[in-house]
Design the sequence.
């Protein structure tokens, strides 16, 4: 039998991905030997913000994305709070946590039910022992789990309706906190909504109390759940992942970054800020971040660009650039971000054990996302109980004539940063690095691929496949938001 020939394959546009994405694959025989990830849309929000009143960032920046708008609002508010020297009061922190958490866990729910799992209901998997169950639960537009998750998500968004007035693009988040106070009656309604969502997770997704999910501590616990655990969709995923060997698919560099999620009134974050590399956690220094343009369709390709002096000047005529996405690097190296990074940096024993065993694989990313869904939902009830309706919600201050600050937060997909520089009372520079900018970056000045480009190397390609299933699983395991990527 002759060997499969080397060939090139263009995959895209992708469905069930937020925004526009194209991937060029170099295929050596039956596997991917190199990948080039292209974000084919230029948007220019950073340029739009230049010269405006700094407070305009609260209106403009959230329009970058319809599904990550609260996260974009939060990053903008944090950057503005930094230049204004504001400290958010306790209630403001708690309400902000509730709003950002609602968006993030809704995104996790959407990713699992509507973006990721429908791939396993494809006819290509017919005959697998789990196929009929996956098709019944997750077939696009028809699956039982798809419909129930959509209903649960809609009810959960009542939290943002009460706290934010609307979603997306709320203006409730401000540099000094939030503009919407919560009274005792509101708190009862919010608790009822969060508890209803918790019941959905326990009845449908996990088939068990969240406390049992939170107690998962190692691969042996997952294996017991897969073999004899409750019959929820989590167990179905574990069965599919085991059958298709998703633990061996999609490993990138093993370097992870988290800005820290959900600031606690007593200090620190629910999920710590830092990096995780070579099996160890360490501190994160935003001053060591720079963006490379060498293979981006941007001017300034000959040097790294620290965000405070960053540049967004399109250069579509340069033939070396193959993406409108820049290449952010920390200490000159690519880092992966997302739920898996948050849980690794935070020291969760299950995710650290899985990553030590399998690396940042497709399976590890999805499990981290589902674990975080349980952990964050549980934390939301605590934040609601901690609210004091009689206390302050928002602080105020004047905008300085000149200052600079960075707003660091965590969107569902990972580390989000807004670097703001104010001069003469106007925005002199506004640079944004979004989670999928990190994960889906092109090659850098040294020609080093971005995390997804690395993760795709070695992916198996079946004979005759034009859109390889393995590639789709890897891409979707990152839960990309391409609108935020290019902003």
Sequence:
């Amino acid at each position: 039998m002759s060997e499969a020939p080397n060939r090139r394959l263009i995959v895209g546009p992708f469905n069930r991905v937020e925004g526009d994405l194209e991937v060029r694959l170099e295929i050596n025989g039956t596997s991917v030997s190199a990948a080039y990830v292209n974000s084919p849309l230029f948007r220019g929000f950073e340029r739009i913000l230049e010269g405006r009143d700094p407070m305009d960032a609260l209106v403009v920046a959230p329009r970058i994305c319809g599904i990550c708008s609260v996260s974009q609002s939060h990053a903008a508010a944090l950057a503005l709070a930094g230049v204004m020297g504001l400290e958010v009061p306790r209630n403001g922190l708690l309400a902000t946590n509730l709003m950002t958490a609602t968006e993030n866990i809704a995104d996790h729910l959407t990713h699992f039910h509507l973006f990721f799992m429908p791939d396993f209901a494809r006819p290509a998997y017919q005959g697998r022992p789990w196929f009929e169950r996956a098709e019944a639960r997750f077939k696009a537009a028809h699956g039982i789990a798809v419909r129930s998750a959509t209903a649960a998500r809609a009810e959960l968004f009542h939290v943002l309706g009460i706290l934010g007035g609307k979603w997306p693009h709320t203006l409730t988040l401000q540099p000094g906190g939030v503009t919407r106070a919560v009274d005792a009656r509101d708190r009862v309604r919010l608790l009822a909504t969060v508890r209803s969502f918790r019941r959905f997770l326990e009845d449908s997704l996990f088939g068990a109390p969240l406390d049992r999910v939170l107690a998962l501590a190692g691969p042996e616990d997952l294996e017991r759940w897969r073999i004899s655990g409750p019959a929820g969709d989590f167990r179905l995923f574990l069965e599919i992942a085991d059958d298709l060997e998703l633990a061996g698919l999609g490993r990138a560099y093993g370097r992870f970054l988290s800005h820290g999620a959900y600031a606690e009134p007593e200090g620190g974050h629910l999920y710590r800020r830092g990096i995780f590399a070579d099996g160890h956690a360490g501190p994160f220094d935003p001053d060591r971040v720079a963006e490379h343009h060498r293979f981006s369709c941007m001017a300034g390709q000959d040097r790294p660009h620290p965000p405070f002096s960053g540049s967004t000047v399109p250069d579509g005529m340069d033939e070396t650039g193959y993406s409108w996405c820049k290449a952010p690097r920390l200490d000159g190296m690519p880092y992966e971000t997302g739920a898996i990074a948050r849980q690794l940096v935070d020291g969760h024993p299950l995710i650290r054990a899985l990553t030590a065993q399998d690396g940042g694989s497709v399976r590890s990313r999805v499990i981290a996302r589902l674990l975080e869904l349980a952990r964050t939902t549980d934390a939301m009830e605590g934040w609601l109980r901690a609210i004091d309706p009689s206390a302050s919600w928002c602080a105020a201050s004047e905008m300085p004539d000149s200052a600079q600050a960075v707003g660091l937060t965590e969107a569902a997909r990972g580390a989000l940063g807004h670097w703001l520089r104010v001069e003469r009372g106007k925005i002199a520079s506004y640079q944004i690095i979004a989670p999928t900018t990190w994960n889906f970056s092109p090659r850098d000045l040294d020609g080093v691929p971005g995390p997804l480009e690395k993760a795709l190397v070695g992916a198996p390609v079946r004979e005759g496949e034009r859109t390889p299933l393995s590639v789709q699983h890897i891409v979707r395991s990152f839960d990309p938001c391409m609108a935020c990527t290019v902003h």
User: Anything to note?
Assistant: The chain has one domain: 7-486. The first strand starts at residue 7 and ends at 11.
